[in-house]
Amino acid sequence: MFWLWLALASFKCLLLYILAKTGESLPRRVRLDEAANRALPEDRWPVVGMIVPMAGTDRRMSAAVRSLLIQNYPQYIPVLVTAKNEEPAADLVRSIQNDYPHVRHVVAGAAQHCGQKNHNSLRGVAAVKDDVEVFVFCDSTHMARPNFLRHLVGPIATGEAEFSTGYHVVDPRDQRPVTLAYALCVLLMRLLQAVSSLTQLWGGAMAMTREAFSRFAVEELWASNVVDDCSLSARLQSLRVPVRLCPGALLHTEAAKHERQVWRAWLERQVLFLKFCMPLQWGLLGFMCAAMVLPPLLAVFMLLGWLFAKVSGLTIVLVLLWVVLLAKVLHLWRNLLKRTISLARWCLSFLDAVAMFALVYVRSLPARSIVWHGQRYVVGPCGKVLRIERRFE
């Protein structure tokens, strides 16, 4: 037991430390991208079609979408897409159009063979494909800074890449365990994205040239798949096509009084998308899950063994030193959020996140479907949608 604990505990600390240092390097990468963007003449920036699928009644949606409409980008066409013409999100679009008349509203209708978000995105593409050179896809609930679009499109404008991606960070507005655990999970995914060998598209902020969209048959792929980013990332990885991470294309997600069931449903989708579309990465995720869960569990068993004189005192000293080391590494992670958070609460939230991660991963083992915005998608190999069950409760 001791040697298994030592191997996994060492791996856990090393991984978290490397990711923390990767996060600390991101501001420098942002500055380099900003310098490259400033050097690019205004007439070199391609015309962009910004497609934003919208659904639900999230209170953050109005401010988030409006932040996407005030970008300091030379020329872009915003397209807001809803499934129906009579739904809360469509009402919001019409309200936004009162202030921004140039915004296009596309009513996509119900998806029949793919995820609703995919269907909405493809309808948005059809509305602008003859007028733009680059497609940008954004979520509707994250705040964007005015230079977000330049950061996301910069590598495409310079000819460095055909596909680029940003990510988001959660700004916790309270120190409740669930809110902090959600922030920590998103931070983990952002830092994994920053490792070049692990970078893949994120549907909340991704861009691609119109030519690449056609050449890699993205429309045909999305038209039968449950999700946009993982399905396309799997195809690009198989073809060895790189995706350029733009760390400055960082959206901000406010979170306050975050509900546990909402957090779990979100985390379940992230894990299931990998299972359906990128099974190898899902398997690696299982190893990471074990590396996160087993060290503290084994440490508890060894502590109990010491109480009953079955484990040496030296072993317990090593366990306590590991706990201190882990707390120091988590302190580095806490600093990446640039918000004052109690270290004790942060560490407890980390344990909460690990426990939720384990629960969600175990639940994903037998799963053959995914629930998203009130609909159940029954999914086959490579994320292909086999059946849609509407009005799922």
Summarize it.
By secondary structure, the protein is α/β, with parallel strands linked by helices. About 55% of the residues lie in helices and about 15% in strands.
How is this structure best described in words?
Keywords: Glycosyltransferase, Membrane, Transferase, Transmembrane, Transmembrane helix. It comes from uncultured Desulfovibrio sp. Its main location: membrane. Pfam families: Glyco_tranf_2_3 (PF13641). It is a single chain. By secondary structure, this protein is an alpha/beta fold. The chain has a domain at 32-264: Alpha-Beta Complex (Spore Coat Polysaccharide Biosynthesis Protein SpsA, Chain A), CATH 3.90.550.10. The protein is 54% helix and 16% strand. The chain contains 13 helices and ten strands. Helix 3 links the parallel strand 2 (76-82) and strand 3 (104-107). Helix 1 packs across helix 11 (279-307), helix 10 packs across helix 13 and helix 11 packs across helix 13 (343-364). The N and C termini lie far apart (44 Å).
